[in-house]
Amino acid sequence: MVGGADVDDLADRALGGVAAQLAPIPTKSVKIESRHTDLRILPRLATHQHLRMPCSVQSMSGHVHIRREGQIGLIVLDHPERHNAISSDMWQGLLDSATELAGDPEIRVVLLRGEGDKAFAAGADISEFNDKRTDSSANQEYDNVSDRAYNALLTMPKPLIAMIHGYCIGGGLAVALTADIRVVADDASFTIPAARLGLGYRAAGLGRLIDLVGPSATKRILFLADRFGADEALMMGLVNRVVPKSELEDATADWLNKICDNAPLTIRAAKAATDEWTKPQSSQDFGKINELVDACFDSADYREGVEAFMTKRKPRFTGR
Question: What pTM was computed for the model?
């Protein structure tokens, strides 16, 4: 039961898996930013108490937070009253947050997470559909913002990690798929309920899912439009790791810290090369990848890594 309703019933009634009884309030998403220069990453990642906004700016349309903890940037979907269903303002917030963190030279890795303990993101906020997705023309305007946000996350030059618990549905799953790595709690529940709503997914929007799980598993997800759990998601290759919910934040922090310990230029080149191989052959540009690899060998980090290995000490990489 969620909010007094059966989960299957909620999935039937809303792309986001949440009921649409409340009218949307036309307010802008709010983004807050802080830099903790004395922190690497807290043993417990950002919580609702840490990120709570003043009552004057809380809104039913939700918002997206940026938080910085040392070399780690956090993007937090904050719409817990609708299980972090993504409003149009939040799509804009995702675009702004991804763009800002991508350009921050102090940030080595970015974490995507949902606020509260019920959901990563329960899809698009269906309560907006009567106003903002009334027909194909209005839907195109909505898609323009969400597509730009999706592409900003997908093309993030730094490692992007999604920490997933609870509901990860529809548009929320699409956001999670932009990540390079997905660490998942054992209570995670996944759905793409398009077939229950009669809406369609454009070919480009399915590309990432097909790349990850293949055509057969993609059809299983879309044709059945049912809920499946973390173990099945792991088996099909949708996620990278499943841990007990009580261990999710610590397990994710461990991987984030390991990434921060490694050479940033090497990771950037590795991510770019891997992503290049997933493109159609006609659009692949390995010349750009070779330039990134050359930059690794010409860097002070390369000399530091070799010296640290020879002297049996931990390297201290600077990204230069």
Answer: 0.79
